Amino acid sequence: MKIDLTQTHDVLGAYHSINWQAIRTQYTDPGTRYAFDVLDQKNVTGYFIKLAAFRHLRDLQRQGSPDFPFNYSVNKGQEILKFASICPNVDTGDPTELMPWQQFIMTQLIGWRNEDGGKRFTRAIVSVARGQGKTYLMAIIVAYSYLVESIGLMNQDYLVSSINFKQTSKILGYIKSMLAQIATREPFKAYMRENGLDARTFASQADTVTMSKSNNKLRAISHEAGQYDSFHFTTAVFDEIGEVKSRDKISKIISGQVKVEGRQFIQISTAYPIPTVPFHDDERMVQQAMEQDYSRNADTYLALIWSQDSLDETYKTETWTKSNPLLDLPSQRAILMPGLLDKRDSDALSGTLSDFQNKNMNMWLQQSTNSYVRLRDVERAIIPSFNPDGRQVYVGFDYSMFSDNTALGFVFPYTDEKGNQKWHLYQHSFIPWEKAGSIEAKEKQDGIGYRELAKKGFCTITAHPQGLINMDQVYQWLQAYVERHNLEVVFFGYDAWGATTMIKQLELNSGWPLEAIRQRTSELKDPTKWIQTGLVEGSFTRLDDSIMEKALLNAQLIEDKIGIQVDKAKATLKIDVVDALIDCAYQAMYHFEDFSDVNNPDKQVDRMTDEQVLNWFNDPSSGLMGGGDSDF
């Protein structure tokens, strides 16, 4: 059965279309019971957890298939839960009985195995609202890996990390306290003694815990220090990774694990104010992989995300267990709910409600209160593909200054299969690196993997030997793109500042209608507002292009007495694509109006080349006046 939830998002509908009796009978472990309870709606959970539960059950059905080399070990799941039952909570000194959602985390991480017996999920995301005890859970996982999974192994490295020294020391201290109390119990007391793990060292300030006989080491290394080179971590846990803006240092952890058997890299975090970070990109990637149930993409990447589904739930307290699952425990609810209500109400009064939504509802938001567009509107516009061939197009051009990118924006008007008027947004950026010193440094500075995106057709790295923008390269790419897709350019808008060479070439060679757009609020207010409104209303589509997404999310609105326009908070936040799209929108927003130039026969003839005019006279019904109809 091919199940694709990327468009419908109807997890429950897909679940109820399948007979689960065999799975219900065979698997009665806590992890699987939780998955069934989620999809039977015995628990109030959000979309992400419904997806994860559905994935677990579908994967149980897939076991034994040639293209699915994984199996679910109930015994391994029981092993980690048994270990967790003796792990003390450092706040109370006593073990905490895990709730079903916590058992689901443990059994997913440890229960699923590959064909060699190692852990299936080599990478994992665990995300839940603030104050839900995720650090305690990860301390259990690290202690289990260090004490149990290391048996018979030597010279293994284990990592705990966070964004800075203070945060990293906190999680290490948590694990040390847990190990110190476990060390008082058999058989671990004897095991630690035999392997040279002195319980007295748990009280020290050292950033390493060592078994002297096996040389297995638990290391605490902060992202701030970033000294992950030369280590090959068996288990690595990174706390609050949602604040990390670049993959550069994280990639060192992952690359060092490549040849390690039983490896696992666990990322834990709440949502953060800035959504243009690798952690959020990975959440979206795994979401799509889970929605494409038929595909084997990301089979070794786990995502367990407890979050609200909508900002509308800010005042629907009955839904808050979606992001705060501890609310399902009566003793916790009595303390937690009043605290959440107080935080929400005080943030609302102070105008900082977004902080509550971000951290206590675990929802990614736009970067700031004056952001141009909202994250959910930008993500909702994504479609898997678009065919530009033979269409009319509006083009915008933003020439780079200093370290900025040069961007070409394209707006394709079309009518969808339901007869709705739509516009497809596309961009192509040209990336200079002269100011940064190299393309590698430019990628780190902007937080964008330009070289990978160039392979996907979203950008071109400048061919200039000194890393400057090569205007001939921009001009040639544009002409080739228009010719390759047989496009009719009905408008070319540009910021005249610094673009003289490019525009001169187009004046001499293209025959396109060119117009300089004055970059002031009175001129830009209408197209700026049109794009913002179109994203909210869902009349725009776009490809999954992180350059466009980051530009839209980086843009902020500025206002004066005569209008609005977009700006950015600092130089490294790129919004060139937005400027180019707004130049397109200067005329694109009128495309379907009767008074639009594109619907004026006299103007249409003006846009034709000599050959097109001749063809039009010879065959007035040739369809050259058309364009914009959907071919979906």
Which features does this protein show?
632 residues, seven-stranded mixed sheet, Nucleotidyltransferase, domain 5, 3 domains, 40% helix, Rossmann fold, disordered C terminus, alpha/beta, 23 helices
Describe this structure in words.
It is a single chain. Strand 5 and strand 6 (216-220) form a beta hairpin. The protein folds into 3 domains: 11-305, P-loop containing nucleotide triphosphate hydrolases (Rossmann fold); 311-357, no CATH class; 375-382 and 390-603, 2-Layer Sandwich (Nucleotidyltransferase, domain 5). A 7-stranded mixed beta sheet has the order 5-6-4-7-8-3-9, with helices on both faces. Strands 10, 11, 12, 13, 14, 15 and 16 form a 7-stranded mixed beta sheet that branches. Strands 1-2 form a two-stranded antiparallel sheet. Helix 5 (74-84) packs across helix 6 (100-111) and helix 19 crosses helix 21 (576-588). It is elongated, with a radius of gyration of 28 Å. With 632 residues, it is of the alpha/beta class. The protein contains 23 helices and 18 strands.
